[in-house]
Amino acid sequence: MSLKVDNLRIAYRTLRGDVLAVDGVSFSIRDGEIMGLAGESGCGKSTLGNGLIFLEGRMKHVGGTVELDGHDLPIADFRAMNRHRLRDVSVIPQYAMSALNPTRKIGRIAADLLKSRGVGYEEVLEEFKRRIDLVGLPQNVLGMYPFELSGGMRQRATMVISTLLNPSLLIGDEVTSALDVSTQRAVGEMLMEFRNRQFVKSMIVITHDLSILAQIADSILIMYAGKLAEKADADTIVNNPLHPYTKALLSSLPEVGLRYDQAPLVGIPGRPPSLLHPPPGCRFRDRCPFVADKCVEEPPFVELRPGHQVACWKATGELAAVGTTATTQEAPL
Amino acid sequence: MTAEMGPEAGQATEAPGRQPAGGQLSGGRRRWEFLHFALRNKKLMGAATVELVFVLAALLGPTIAPYNPNAYLTTAAHLPAADLHPSAHYLMGTTYFGQDVFSQLLYGLRDSYLVGFLGALFASLVGMSIGFTAGYRGGFLDEALQLLTNIIVMIPSLVLLIVIASYLKTRGVLFEGVFIGVTTWPWVARAVRAQTFTLRERDFVDLARLSGKRGASIVLKDIAPNMASYLFLVLILLFGSSILIAANFDFLGLGPTNTISLGTMMNQSTLWSALQLHLWWWFIPPGVVITAIVAALLVANVGLDEVFNPKLRET
Amino acid sequence: MLEIDKVSKVYRGGTFGGGLKPALRQVSFDIDKGEVVSLIGQSGSGKSTLGKIILRLVSLSAGHVKFEGADITAWEKGQLRDYYRHVQGVFQDPFSSYNPLYKADRVFEMIRSVYFPDLRGRAWEDKVESSLHSVSLNPADVLNKYPHQLSGGQQQRLLIARALLLEVRLLIADEIISMLDASTRVDVLNLLVDLKKKGLGILFITHDLSLGNYISDRSVILRDGAVVEMGDTQKVFGNPQHSYTKSLLTAVPQLHKKWEDMSPYPLEDAPAQASAAGQLPGHVGSAPAGESTVPGEASRRYSKSVLHPAHNGPWARGPAPGEGSTGQLVGAGIVDGRPAGVGGSRPSLMDTPDQPWQQRFGFGAPKLEAVIAQSAPPPLVECEDGHFVAVEDEQ
After folding, report:
1. Which domains are assigned to chain B?
2. Which of A35, B38, B295, C289 has the smallest number of CB atoms closer than 10 Å to its CB?
């Protein structure tokens, strides 16, 4: 197991009390796996992803454990995490293009970062140059300032710097959101290549865009209102989702070639519930087309089929009635 | 469907990380929040207290002043009560001419505050109008106004005042206030212009333009309120600097000819050899008071900055 | 209804304001009544600039914008107010379109005070409520609230409702759903479809091809300020002619088709070489030979027209005829003196092309007309009925 998260709970301190943005999340990622973490804004995916490497001032670790490569990852302890950052866990932040210090040259930024981890710049310079070349950046980028590069180039530079020490876990927070379509594809393929060449062992890709995940992720984890809704490998999620929320998400994605008169898209009415005082039971209950009485009780996140976990009474009920060999019916929404 | 969730709860669900900064809450809640933090800010409260003491002294001055500040007092023995140390009779001693320093101080405070207020008023009116216009309109008008601003900046105010003073034999508080206002507005104009430039690019200004609103209305209703805290700080700084500049002018003898102010007290004391005669009670109190007033205003400014800008707060 | 005629926009850029950068190059197209036209381009293509020019929020450098036959380019004050009665805009960031100090419905009040000063009380409230109903908003949910109390979707729909209070005939929708969640996007998108059916014309500005395809009747593909392809949406998407359009379509991530299964970027006719191997996508094909890491793998070199939008066109270099035609540092990712990224990323600040020092410092700076003339895009030819493509340079 590369990463193992057990019942993790992270809250935000606000003037009105603690908001539990990540409420009891458990999952694991194998070596070499790219896991996509998808959900609407406010569902907790960014909190989860970023919490694994850096708990900001307002965030509070309320419970649960994180284990990386067999060792406990002390996410609540800022100083203790310093030993792990960049070496074992690394992050490509959202708006990576703006994550570079505009007054420093790229090489200098990398050197400073490495120095703070106790690694000499000269030691990794050779490898650094190789990787710069690999992602298609010119060698002299090391001597350039960030504003001299275009957005896509900065994105790639940030990606290289983040993965220089071959971390076990790479967290990509909305890495493709601000990019053009062709750069998106390049970055997506680059992420896969990093994994293929074992620059990183495993990856969590956080995004709201399921179509990107369909391309690059091995498995997808869907979050809703702080809790896990469904986890399975990418093909299953895209073709045979069980959770009503996943199904709704998929049917709201437009595809090239389909027009409104041919295949009208359907949205999900309503809004996610308040996390300040979350309602009891299934959090999707208010917006779910299949809501039943039982949904007042919170459904457990269980493995219904090998490798396919869901938190939904309907999914459980459905399968229990028909048997494990049944394929999921595409229930009309 | 639970569409009605409380404002903060609704806010909390939209990615808590995306919470807007303090300046973007609703109007009423915002003021409450500012007040809440203001009352807890040590710098602000301390400075405000000091300032309040002086303001009260200035307001109540005429009633509590024991003597007429201009009167040449005599002792019981009908001798001039000059050069006397601070005592029970004369709380801060007397001047070379036998005037009560304490009473002068109280009256002087009033004048200093009045000049400060007038100077701040004129400087802010002129500076803000020019700053808003240049910042909002841009283009040629902006260039022209900037040229004007730069010219005014270059004119040395002291020299100008000396020249004018040589023509005006009597000068009053109003003149001094207006003069200070007219010579210190450039930095206000620049600061306001810079902020206006930034705010002008915001989408809600575009929306206001798309609604057919005119420029002046947009500046007054959309742009200025979003700079309100900044403008407030500017006013306070102007107030402080006007008092200080007035004291400078007064000290050099270029101040009002018909009243007493803190600066004129210092001017008089130096002219009449208070330093040589060791009449420390004549020149030190006005100096200390001016320093205290202006310093308190600056400290209050820093404190207010912390109140308005959530990122500077300690918590 | 709306006619855009050779609109160009040139910005001052570069050090000391000496360089002139064309953001839009002689763009022309029109929008008919009740038609949805999507303006598709990546960042830096100038699409938002065009939207703002149509809305008269930004001035244009050359060309005309005609609304119902009348040239609106020089209209001011009263005429402009009338123009806004018929043409309105909604922008990308719903939250920043509201002044955070006031309640959200102030946007309605602003309209009332200028356009309906005599309408008050019950009559006005009824009007507002019916407008809200037509965007599927419950008045009780959204009136009397501050902007941060509303969701992104509600904010956008409120802004559309505001536009509907007037007799709007054309709505400029500038990336209005890109900041919304997947589920709320659809609601707003379907709302636009409904409004179109009721006769509203929409200019749908987006970078997302699938959205453009979903909603529009005609599409205009913009690259670096110039139109590369335009026409009937189904024709443009179904039978793309320009290499740029094709490359965009292959790069769109789809749910049911992997990137590997789509035809790759248009490749140069580079033979499978032992060198320049193992290059990751996005590589500019720099290694002519020799810089190989893993020998024996095929090289993937990407068409310059995809990756180096600045490549074509002498305007990128500035008017210096004496200099060599290409001189690109292709491998350095810098083309014609301009750093360029993959697929049309926005050129950076330092992209003032190599010019003689006089021009760089503003003396003898190239005139506006010269820049516009020099940056003229390739002409459009009609390849099919209602389908136009820009002529491509042969590489």
Report:
1. 30-60+101-312 (1.10.3720.10)
2. C289
Query: A199 to each of A111, A169, B233, how far by Cα in Å?
Result: 19, 10, 52
- Chain C residue with Cα closest to A193: C280
The whole-number average pLDDT for the span C67-93 is 88
Q: Where are the alpha helices (DSSP H) in B155-279?
A: 157-167, 173-200, 203-210, 215-218, 224-226, 228-251, 262-271
- Closest by CA to C204, choosing from C182, C166, C178, is C178
Judging contacts by C-beta atoms under 8 Å, the chain A residues touching residue C237 are 256-257
Does the residue C225 lie in any domain?
Answer: yes
Nearest CA-CA partner of A231 in A215, A248, A245, A216: A245
The answer to whether A173 and A191 are in contact (CB under 8 A) is: no
Question: At residue B309, what is the residue type?
Answer: N
Name the closest residue on chain B to residue C162, using Cα atoms.
Answer: B211
Pair C224, C44: CB distance under 8 Å: yes
Q: Is the pLDDT of residue B117 over 90?
A: yes
Looking at the domain assignment, is residue C265 inside a domain? no
List, for residues A162-200, the tens digit of each pLDDT value: 999 999 999 998 888 767 787 888 888 889 999 999 889
Rg (CA), chain A: 21
Single-letter code of the amino acid located at B266:
M
State the ipTM, two decimals. 0.74
pLDDT at C158: 92
Q: Residue C372: which of C45, C5, C84, C7 has the closest Cα?
A: C7
pTM of the model: 0.75
Q: Which two tokens stand for residue C180?
A: 């919304």
Q: Where do we find the tokens 């022309």?
A: C28
DSSP code of residue B309: -
Residue type for position C377: P
- Whether C210 is in a domain gets the answer yes
- Sort out which chain C residues have CB atoms less than 8 A from A185's CB and list them: 251, 253, 259, 281
Which residue in the set C55, C95, C150 is minimally distant from B210, CB to CB?
A: C55
| Full residue range of the structural domain in which residue C208 is found | 2-250
At the topology level of CATH, where does A3-88+167-245 sit? Rossmann fold (3.40.50)
Q: Which chains touch A (3 or more CB pairs under 8 A)?
A: B, C
Contact present, A314 and A290 (Cβ < 8 Å): yes
Of C138, C148, C159, the CB nearest to B3: C138
b/e per residue C209-246 (b: at least 16 CB within 10 A): bbbbbbbbbbbbbbbbbbbbbbbbbbbbbeebbbbbbb
| CATH code assigned at C46 | 3.40.50.300
Domain count, chain C: 1
Per-residue model confidence (pLDDT) at position C21: 75
Q: Which helix (H) or strand (E) holds C222?
A: strand C218-223
Contact B14 A42 (CB under 8 A): yes
- Dump pLDDT digits (tens) for C247-261: 888 888 888 777 777
**Would you list the domain boundaries of chain A?**
3-88+167-245
Q: Which residues contact C202 (CB under 8 A, 6 or more apart)?
A: C35, C36, C37, C170, C171, C172, C173, C192, C195, C196, C215
Chain B hits for C103, Cβ within 8 Å: 26
- Which B residues 52-111 touch C at CB under 8 Å? none
Tell how strand C36-41 and strand C2-13 pair up: unpaired
Chains A, C: CB contacts within 8 A come to 200
Q: Per the domain annotation, does C230 fall within a domain?
A: yes
